[in-house]
Design a protein that fits this description.
By secondary structure, this protein is mainly α. It is built from five helices and no strands.
């Protein structure tokens, strides 16, 4: 019943989340395919904010709360993978546009 109480108390935040999902889908759907990969690689590289946020949440978590610490660790690892992947894709795309040495 805590979930229902949480939903009832934060209904306006849930509406904002649903609206942002619809807006995000429409924005991404209307981007031309040629621009999609460069924009996404740059956005992945910017997801370092997730890493900082996960570290801050882990610092505030109770040391005996293993679920919060595990989820925070997973968020840090996945955020790092996302950042590294964004840089790899961006670097690969930039290599495609460089002139080849003769």
């Amino acid at each position: 019943m805590q979930i229902l109480e949480f939903i009832k108390d934060n209904l306006h935040l849930i509406y904002i989340l649903i609206l942002s999902v619809f807006i995000g889908v429409e924005v991404i759907k209307n981007i031309p395919a040629v621009l999609h990969t460069p924009l996404m690689s740059g956005a992945n590289a910017l997801s370092g904010v997730v890493i900082v946020g996960a570290i801050l949440v882990m610092l505030q978590a109770d040391p005996t709360d293993y679920i919060a610490l595990t989820l925070g660790f997973m968020a840090v690892v996945l955020g790092i993978l996302n950042v590294v992947g964004g840089f790899v894709v961006t670097d690969r795309m930039l290599q495609m546009f460089k002139k080849k040495k003769q």
